[in-house]
Each structure stands twice: as C-alpha cells, then as structure tokens.
Amino acid sequence: MSDSPVLTRNLTFKTKDLGADATLMLTFDKNIKGPHSDTFPVCWKVTRFGKEGPYSMHTTFRSEFAFVKPQAEGDTISASTYKFINVGEKTILTKDDRDVYHFSDVVKGEDGYLEALNSCPKPEDMAIGFTDPTSGPEPTPALYFTEVDTGAIVKAQFTPVLRAYITEQYQQAEIIKTEVSTPFIWEQDLARLSQRTSWVLTREGPATYKLTQE
Fold first, then answer.
1. Mean pLDDT across the stretch 75-82?
2. Could you tell me the pTM of the whole model?
C-alpha cells in the first residue's frame, strides 16, 4: 500500500445579503474535454444561497480514493460497491454467477495512476470517487467512465482542481454529460490550499459573481 499522506481540505462558502438568489455548483471538471465520449465529471456539491441574510456551506475533500461500481437513478449516481485504492495501485472488477459485482484486493499498478480492470463478461460503467466526511462513509463519485470494454483498464490521474459555477443546471451527484452552460467563476488546486479556507461569494453585476478568500 502507498504511504502517501492523505490530503484533507475543509472548505467553507459564505454569502451575506447577496442581492439575488444563486445556486453554487462544485465539480472537478478541469481537463475533461467535451463533448465527452467516455469520461464524464460528476457534480460534487450544489448549494443555494438566498437573496438576503447570511448563508454558509461547509464541505471536506479527502484524497482517499476508491473505484466504484455505480448505480444510477436517472442521471445521478451513487456507489453500489467499491474498493479503496491508492495512487500506484490496481484492482479488478468481476461479476459472479449471482450477478453480484466485486472488486479484488489491490495490487501494485503503474506509478502515478489509479487503475481498474474490467473482467466482467460485458462492458461496464465504473467511477472514481473519494471520501467526503460530510456525505457519509461511502465514496463520492467524481469521474464516471461509461461502457468500459471487457478486458480494458481504466487508468486515471486525479488532480484535485475544483471549479465553482453559478448554475441551476445540475443536481448533486449528477453526471455532467455536456459542457456547463455558464463559465466557471473560481478554480483552485486543492493541494495548494491550506487545510481550512473560507470563501465569500459576492454579486458583482446582474449575472456576475466572484469568490474571494476570507
């Protein structure tokens, strides 16, 4: 197993008398080009801030990764089974004669990558997730891979670059299948932030918003 330290980042987003109702959406979609053919980002967090008064939202990112066999309800997904995995390790997805999915114990893989082999009889969807203490013990999906061929390996490098959008286009845990229709207002490499940071959302114009570190 890797001895890499776990990266933990606690983020707080605040408003006070914003001046309009606004929905903040957070996702890890940097360097995932669209239209997406086989890899999709997943909406991590959605929170709604009111026009008047103070509001705040707290969330935590931890670099404890997992491969996930997702279950879908429409375009939103959650983990049905999963296997925690470190960078530089590999796992294998199988399906038994009762149609139950299993991930194998991890073994050494290629340095710098998270890897999973689809050893099921048919193409399968998979996802990479991470632990989010604000959501419970199951990993939160962040990247979704569709129709991974039998015998194919998902090989991914996950860089924790988080983006914020003002949009009502998505709900939490929804697969983002097209480019977000509004530009992102904020982008941060979480590895470069302090363990705890606080950000204030302000409205600069009718459709212009800004996040500034407190």
1. 90
2. 0.91
